[in-house]
Recover the amino acids of this structure.
């Protein structure tokens, strides 16, 4: 069936396309797999010489123009985007030779009866040990006519220099100069995914890892969907899943066993752990559509004996041992927290890529409790300009200890880009940081809107309705929305960075000027009595409720002596206490998500267990004296008096001998305003984070 075309005509049957230098690694590997008797969809391969011939033998030598464009391209996104656009126009201007059009038509005639075709890249050097271009080159699905086949081939050729591929080539200093092209029968996939024959995160384990989703593998490989994940023991075939959905029905036990069997065969065939793309068709038949070596398997993790761990600051949010679900959320969340922050500040992608292993190891667990990996965090901070300043600022802000420079982690100087380029990069980072810090309130407003919308979608009555209708797809969609919000935490991370930097700068400005014993915590005193903090609002409301209770001495006595559950039951039974109960319910509706361990997912909120709020109310009921708001106002007055004293003393002091005209008072005024804004925004984000996690808990329980 595949014998009518020849190599000289530019197309070769997939079974015969065994030379990776001529057809590309992907095609050569699939050819070898097909010859070994494993299921690979039928197809043909356009060789790389045909690719070059059409680019070089046009009226203008397109390949030469492409090389010139790439030579003048920088790694910045705007530069690669423009170069990619120009190259795409050049490639799409190519006219196929008459003979090549003829063999394409013959190929289409042979394959069309099996349904739509897919056109896939097989670039020379695409799947090597040192680099992999998974998801960077285009596959064109649903090709149904000869004309669509012509257009798909050109689009596939142009993707050799897509923006993503071009950026990767420039950063990795590797080139894709030639391309083979696969034309195959498209599998009508019910589900698809990838199989790692060794766990990339824990290669010493005996696990294979299967990631999969409904439909084709393209969205999974490109990262546009959140996959389901199975861990399969290589020998016993025992499975475990980190899925929170019922999507496991997409992959039967028999399909898992067959897939693991394919994995063993491909490891033996290529003598290396494999990253295998597969799909399951509507007839429950498995197909292999790609196999390549796992490129990151041998990447060494920092030695455990050389890592500095700390629970400073993190223990406030996660005071108790954490569950596996929370760890998986937090580890991925911290990865995006630091990575997206670096991108937002304009750090070059080459530096971001160099920090990848540090981003992946920001947190860990010891005895079930979460800890910061200070070695990784300091490694990330030192990869930015003024890295030592940032590392010191982080330590001071969270109360962590310092670490020594570590050659395992890239420093700012490690990524050489030339003095002029580096100077411009520093200016760009400074400019972007300044703009981000100026727009803090706007950014936090975006987060508040997203989380409020999510909380509304997860309200109790809607979750009850979804449970009654057994609507698991909607519950899964809510889970995905949570992940999307958590992975786009950049605006909140900017508020953290702004607070950290402004606090450290304020401390440095004042510490040399005020050295009396009573001035040791002078920077902290500038943050007391901030009436604009949202964290003070629940306290005001609880105080008001406690004053209502104190008006009824018998009830106040019961708060002091009775069990919390009995007190809540009493408020429910006695009509005389209906107003107080209504006030408590209103408080719980508005603030019931704020409680100890609110981010742990395993702790009930006051909305879940209203009786748990009674001991806190009892404390307020027993308290005499001024209301919290009045106490806060007194602190505010003291802070304003302290601020005035500091500014008066700095009024006559120059910033430095070299800059005598700028007074320290002027700088201090700006820093104090900056830090107070930053802390207020940070508190707003922390409040909404509590709401986000408690509503996720409700979804998980549903």
């Amino acid at each position: 069936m595949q014998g009518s075309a020849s190599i000289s005509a530019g197309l070769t049957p997939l079974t015969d396309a065994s030379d990776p230098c001529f057809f590309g690694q992907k095609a050569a590997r699939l050819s070898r797999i097909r010859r070994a008797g494993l299921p690979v969809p039928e197809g043909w391969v356009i060789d790389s010489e045909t690719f070059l011939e059409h680019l070089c033998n046009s009226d203008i030598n397109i390949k030469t123009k492409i090389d010139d464009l790439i030579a003048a391209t920088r790694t910045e996104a705007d530069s690669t985007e423009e170069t990619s656009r120009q190259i795409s126009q050049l490639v799409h201007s190519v006219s196929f030779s008459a003979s090549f059009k003829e063999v394409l038509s013959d190929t289409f005639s042979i394959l069309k009866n099996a349904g739509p075709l897919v056109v896939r890249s097989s670039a020379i050097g695409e799947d090597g040990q040192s680099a992999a271009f998974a998801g960077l080159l285009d596959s064109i699905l649903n090709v149904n006519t000869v004309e669509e086949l012509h257009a798909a081939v050109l689009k596939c050729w142009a993707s050799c220099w897509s923006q993503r591929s071009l950026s990767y080539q420039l950063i990795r200093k590797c080139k894709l100069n030639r391309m083979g092209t696969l034309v195959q029968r498209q599998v009508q996939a019910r589900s698809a995914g990838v199989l790692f024959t060794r766990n990339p995160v824990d290669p010493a384990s005996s696990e294979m890892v299967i990631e999969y989703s409904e439909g084709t593998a393209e969205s999974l490989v490109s990262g546009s969907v959140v996959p389901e994940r199975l861990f399969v023991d290589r020998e016993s075939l025992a499975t475990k899943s980190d899925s929170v959905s019922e999507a496991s029905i997409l992959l039967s036990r028999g399909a898992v066993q067959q897939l693991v069997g394919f994995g063993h065969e491909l490891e033996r065939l290529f003598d290396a752990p494999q990253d295998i793309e597969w799909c399951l068709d509507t007839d429950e038949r498995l197909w292999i559509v790609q196999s390549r070596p796992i490129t990151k398997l041998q990447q060494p993790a920092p030695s455990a004996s050389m890592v500095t761990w700390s629970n400073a600051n993190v223990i406030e949010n996660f005071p108790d041992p954490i569950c596996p679900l929370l760890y998986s959320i937090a580890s991925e969340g911290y990865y995006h927290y630091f990575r997206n922050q670096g991108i937002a500040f304009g750090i070059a992608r080459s530096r971001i890529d160099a920090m990848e292993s540090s981003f992946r190891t920001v947190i860990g667990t010891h005895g079930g409790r979460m800890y910061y990996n200070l070695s990784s965090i300091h490694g990330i901070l030192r990869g930015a300009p003024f890295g030592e300043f940032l590392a010191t600022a982080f330590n001071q802000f969270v109360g962590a200890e310092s670490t020594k420079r570590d050659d395992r982690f890239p420093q700012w100087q490690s990524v050489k880009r030339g003095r002029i380029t580096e100077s411009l990069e520093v200016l760009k980072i400074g400019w972007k940081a300044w703009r981000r810090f100026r727009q803090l309130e706007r950014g936090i407003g975006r987060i508040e809107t997203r989380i409020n919308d999510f909380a509304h979608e997860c309200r109790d009555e809607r979750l009850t309705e979804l449970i009654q209708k057994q609507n698991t797809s909607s519950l899964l969609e809510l889970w995905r929305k949570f992940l999307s919000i958590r992975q786009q935490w950049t605006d909140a991370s900017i508020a953290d960075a702004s607070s950290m930097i402004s606090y450290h700068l304020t401390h440095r400005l004042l510490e040399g000027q005020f050295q009396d014993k009573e001035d040791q915590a002078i920077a902290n005193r500038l943050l007391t009595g901030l009436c604009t903090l949202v964290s003070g609002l629940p306290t005001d409301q609880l105080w008001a409720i406690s004053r209502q209770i104190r008006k009824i001495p018998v009830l106040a006595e019961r708060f002091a002596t009775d069990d919390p559950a009995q007190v809540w039951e009493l408020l429910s039974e006695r009509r005389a206490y209906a107003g107080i109960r209504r006030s408590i319910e209103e408080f719980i509706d508005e603030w019931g998500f704020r409680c100890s361990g609110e981010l742990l997912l395993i702790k009930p909120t006051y909305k879940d267990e209203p009786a748990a709020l009674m001991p806190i109310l009892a404390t307020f009921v027993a308290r005499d004296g001024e209301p919290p708001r009045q106490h806060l106002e007194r602190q505010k007055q003291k802070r304003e008096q302290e601020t005035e004293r500091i500014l008066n003393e700095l009024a006559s002091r120059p910033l430095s001998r070299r800059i005598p005209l700028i007074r320290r008072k002027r700088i201090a005024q700006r820093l104090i305003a900056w830090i107070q804004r930053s802390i207020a925004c940070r508190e707003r984000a922390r409040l909404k984070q509590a709401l986000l996690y408690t509503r996720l808990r409700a979804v998980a329980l549903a």
Notes: The longest strand covers residues 189-196. The chain has 29 helices and 14 strands. The chain has a mean pLDDT of 83.
